[in-house]
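Per your request, structure below.
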């Protein structure tokens, strides 16, 4: 095992997240921002934009285009980006099992303006198996690992992702969660820390970690991509299916991540 991997494994196990500095090369970062420039900010919720659908989680979340891989171009390059692909395979790819492999459950392009936030959610307490953290017998078995890429600098006041380190293994509900009203903001939740990023950085975390987005108070936009990786036998949370046009233009390696188990249809006489 490489020393860097030992360090990553220790802190991922301990805290539930890792910061990947300089994850995106400048050219890819620029092309992603150019794609974000043309998103229609007034797109109605539920409407489609070139194969991606606006599906904001809450009214305060901001513009969120789900299924953004259908937009093509630089979004496809994130599927197996070398900055994180080996890490997500290691943590949630059912390593050393008969179902080894990955699947991208959700892919989202997110734009958040001043005033927006994302409420706190997840945590180990009564967490769904889909986001569960587990390590035993020398292998990780995480249900889902997320990669959030910062396309803009995200510092104080910019609406940084916030996490409660270690909460992915908690057996107790946060004692003060719920004291801050509906759509609870993480800004002052005890134990929550902001993950500040420079444009091009990424944060990797297990979905079972308590997390959310702090309030953006600065002008301008917080731009991120969110890719959720999971087990090869998973299915998209909202029922999205990747189009044949997208699948056919991908490299074989990328296609295997979006379609790890190709459809197997009956042939011959259906009556037997």
């Amino acid at each position: 095992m490489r020393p860097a991997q030992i360090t990553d494994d220790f802190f991922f196990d301990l805290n539930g997240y890792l910061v990947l500095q300089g994850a995106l090369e400048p050219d890819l970062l620029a092309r992603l921002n150019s794609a974000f420039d043309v998103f229609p900010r007034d797109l109605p919720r539920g409407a489609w934009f070139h194969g991606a659908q606006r599906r904001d989680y809450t009214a305060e979340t901001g513009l969120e285009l789900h299924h953004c891989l259908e937009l093509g171009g630089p979004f496809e390059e994130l599927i197996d980006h070398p900055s994180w692909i080996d890490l997500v395979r290691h943590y949630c790819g059912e390593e050393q099992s008969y179902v080894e492999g990955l699947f991208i459950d959700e892919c989202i392009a997110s734009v958040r303006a001043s005033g927006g936030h994302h409420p706190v959610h997840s945590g180990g307490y009564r967490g769904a198996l889909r986001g569960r953290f587990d390590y035993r017998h020398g292998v990780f078995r995480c249900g889902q690992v997320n990669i959030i890429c910062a396309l803009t600098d995200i510092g104080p006041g910019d609406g940084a992702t916030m996490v409660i380190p270690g909460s992915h293994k908690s057996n107790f509900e946060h004692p003060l969660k719920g004291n801050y009203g509906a759509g609870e903001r993480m800004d002052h939740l005890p134990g929550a820390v902001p993950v500040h990023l420079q444009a091009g950085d990424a944060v990797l975390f297990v979905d079972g970690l308590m997390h959310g987005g702090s309030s953006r108070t600065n002008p301008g936009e917080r731009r991120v991509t969110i890719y959720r990786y999971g087990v090869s036998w998973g299915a998209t949370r909202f029922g999205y299916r990747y189009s044949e046009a997208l699948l056919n233009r991908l490299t074989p390696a990328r296609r295997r991540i979006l379609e790890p188990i190709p459809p197997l249809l009956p042939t011959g006489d259906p009556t037997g």
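The chain is about 20% helix and 25% strand.

Regards,
D.
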